[in-house]
Design brief:
single chain; about 170 residues; alpha+beta; 2 domains; 6-stranded antiparallel β-sheet; two-stranded antiparallel sheet; 6 helices; elongated
């Protein structure tokens, strides 16, 4: 409706408006593609092998509290000793799984995934047996941001403020 009224308001023809709108949309789409490519390159450059716990629920229960208390970095990510060879990564993650019958916010533990590189990951069952190969690292796309007074507050800071830090 606005685009239909715009030519009259600007005293120009409809085709000029359509061409300008399409051109603007193309510029925005290209900028978004470039930004996505830059984020991907930064992620690949900074990649370190890591693992994630898997539970019966793919989405966390109580998602707000989950995000405010650290999200996937706190509740799902399994730190690996990278000074050890990659062949030990599954055993390292499996040791954590054996001590974690329930994945917080995700239900009973069902296994884990080890991301060996940006282009290689393996999913393992509860017994540490490989069950699925991925030609891409398993990535959690959920992002949680807490803004107070226009400034981002990291989830770890929020957790410290409220005494809900993760204890190793």
């Amino acid at each position: 409706m606005v685009l239909d009224a715009l030519p009259a308001a600007l005293d120009t023809d409809k085709d000029a408006i359509r061409t300008t709108v399409r051109g603007t949309a193309d510029i925005i789409a290209e900028a978004e593609r470039r930004a996505a490519a830059e984020r991907e390159e930064a992620w690949r450059t900074s990649f370190l092998p890591h693992a994630y716990l898997l539970g019966t629920e793919s989405r966390p229960t109580q998602i707000i509290l989950y995000g405010l208390t650290g999200g996937p970095e706190r509740w799902l990510k399994v730190p690996l000793d990278l000074s050890q060879p990659p062949v030990t990564f599954a055993a390292q993650a499996h040791a954590v799984v054996k001590k974690t019958p329930n994945v917080p916010w995700h239900g009973a533990t069902t296994g884990f995934i080890v991301n060996y590189s940006p282009d290689s990951a393996l999913r393992f069952d509860l017994d540490g047996n490989p069950v699925e190969y991925f030609d891409r690292a398993y990535r959690l796309t959920a992002q949680f941001e807490l803004m107070i007074g226009g400034r981002e507050v990291p989830a770890q800071t929020f957790a410290k403020l409220f005494g809900i830090e993760k204890h190793s």
